[in-house]
Amino acid sequence: MLHTGLKSFVGIAVAAPTGAYIYAQNDEGLNRMVTAFQTMGSIQARFEFHSTMRGMDRRSLHKQYAPEVLDMVLNLGGYYIKIAQTLVGAYVLPEVYDDVFEVLLDKVTLRSFSNVKSIIEHELGAPLSENFLEFNDNPIGAASIGWVHKATLKNGKACVVKVQ
């Protein structure tokens, strides 16, 4: 009986993480969340090790790890950038993070136009040329979760298109 229970436990212990991994690979949001937890867990573990075991100054460790956190936020994009923008100046994080994250307030990386174009065409179900006479590939605005482009509709009316 114990042997059967042990086999079941081992089966679950192997199958559950494997299933979660496969599911995460097919779900962009879950994959980004797992990446965020892995990255932050690694940073937290290294931070605690260096501050507790090696007696390093916590302020200097924040200064060392803040750029790594910023890189993670920029790579994950979207709402991760929005959360970091919200935290800047809210006096929630150590001051060094405000300094490092300040670039998020006005220098968010733009997506390539081919990426933006594919999003629009997927949403509209047709190529840009079927919906617009002109479409400016340089955004007139960009934020953490969206880009704004000038365009001209087929009927000649000027418009702007916000892509999230």
Give a short overview.
This protein is an alpha+beta fold. It is built from 7 helices and 4 strands, in the order H-H-H-H-H-H-H-E-E-E-E. It folds into 2 domains: 2-105, no CATH class; 113-163, no CATH class.
**Please, how many domains?**
2
Unreliable residue stretches: 1-7
How many runs of DSSP E, i.e. beta strands? 4
How does the major sheet shape up?
4 strands, antiparallel
From the alpha carbons, calculate the radius of gyration and give it in angstroms: 23 Å
> CA-to-CA gap between the ends?
55 Å
* Number of separate helices: 7
Helix and strand composition category:
alpha+beta
Helix-residue proportion: 55-70%
Percent range for β-strand residues: 5-15%
The residue-averaged pLDDT reads: 80
Coarse shape = elongated
Order of helices and strands: HHHHHHHEEEE
Explained architecture:
By secondary structure, the protein is of the alpha+beta class. It has 2 domains: 2-105, no CATH class; 113-163, no CATH class. 62% of the residues lie in helices and 12% in strands. The protein has 7 helices and 4 strands, in the order H-H-H-H-H-H-H-E-E-E-E. The chain has helices spanning 2-25, 28-53, 58-76, 78-87, 95-101, 113-124, 128-131; strands at residues 132-135, 141-142, 147-153, 158-163. Strands 1, 2, 3 and 4 form a 4-stranded antiparallel sheet that branches. A hairpin with a 4-residue loop joins strand 3 and strand 4 (158-163). Mean pLDDT is 80; it is low at 1-7.
